[in-house]
Amino acid sequence: MEDNPRPLKERTEQSLFWSMLNNGTLQLLNILFGVVLARLLTPGDYGIVGVLTIFTLIAGNLQSSGFTQALINLKEPKAEDYNSVFWFNVIVSIVIYAVLWLCAPLIARFFHQPVLVDVSRFVFLAFLISSLGIAHAAYMSKNMMNREVAIINFIALLCSGGAGIILAFNGFAYWSLAWQQVIYITVLNLGRYFYVKWRPSWKIDFGPVKRMFGFAVNILFTNIINTLSGQILTFIFGRFFPIAQVGNFTQANKWNTQANTFVSGTLLQVVQTVLVSVSDDKVRQKRVFRKMVRFTAFIAFPVMLGLALIAKEFVEVILGDKWLECIPLLQVLCIAGAFIPFYTVYQNLAIGCKRSDLYLWCNIGQIVLQIGLIILCYYCFSQSIIVVVTVYSIFMIAWLVAWQAVAKHLINLKWTEAILDIAPFFLITVAVFALTHYATIFITNSIALLIAKVIIAAALYIAVMKLANVKIFKECWEFLKKKVLKH
Fold first, then answer.
1. Each residue's pLDDT tens digit, 161-174
2. What is the dihedral of CA 183, 187, 192, 194, to 10 degrees?
């Protein structure tokens, strides 16, 4: 069902280009819509929908059950493989939605928010609708249709963001955020059906699902653990803190997530497919993996630490004074967020090597220690949100050591090699941003300071990359010039 005659390097470059264009465009649109909605809505509105995120994400994990990654991991998936996964997803989604519909009153009672009964039942429709497009999304990812994915995501975000703003402007409050989610996934699925000519048949055979089950079940449990890891703070804060404080954290986490998703999302659409394609050659796989890590460091550190650098001015100028309390939360989250994209590369190495067991157990260790540390911090040391978020962030950075141990086992990636791939970009970024901070310290106007920091930091980073003749920068620059000249 796939035909990729082009060389792997060319396909990877093209896919990374469209993935980056896709995620960059999405993040710009998200910024635009996010800023408008942040000015129209209150922290309480964001808190209402924010506490439901963990349920929708876990339901989404159960819905796909790891078969999306299992399809991508097949060398040459057939039509019957996609059809089997499609019907499995639909049936599982109907069952899960029925359970969540019945549990809506319990969710509302847990968070002390009666309005969550109706809101949750509506928001959960999003993952039920998404079940109709999961197999199509796997097909597009497997065939590196990242240009088409970019177009679909752009249109879906444009429609959903526009609808959210219109509803918020007309006083629909948190319902505007709920409708935004449902409209987004609906338009996304319509786009997938437009570009993917494959259609599910009524000949239902769960044989392919059974054959993929052993691999997929480990991915399922791991995805659930990853969801818990990413959303555990919102869940805990939703239970113990006022909904407005939860909204401030949700807002900070939203911008942190959007920024690191620009990097992680770019890689996610490419890295597993590429690592699977070279899995028979461990030397080449290690070389490709290290290049992916360097690319991640080259992009992630300036993006995430840059957001931490401008967080104060960004919130004051763009979001408004009602969100000032989220500034320290955003800064701390961004420091940890600079390292989160590396998880994508390391985790997909384990998947590409067909070691979903290592993928599972490494994530189990992470969530167990994480929850224990957060609870210990909350009850024994401090009930301050900023302290708990700081402890969480430190742990997320430290846990990369465990993933490096996995990489050493799978492809013999030495610790010194990993440090040499990551440390130079980190040190250069920190030095550049320190210079930027002191070069702009005399500026008092927030708007001027925001603009100055962005321009000076970007210019210095590019200049250092060029003067140091950094290979990954040179390759990216040459590729972009080639694309510009071509068009």
1. 889 899 988 888 88
2. 160
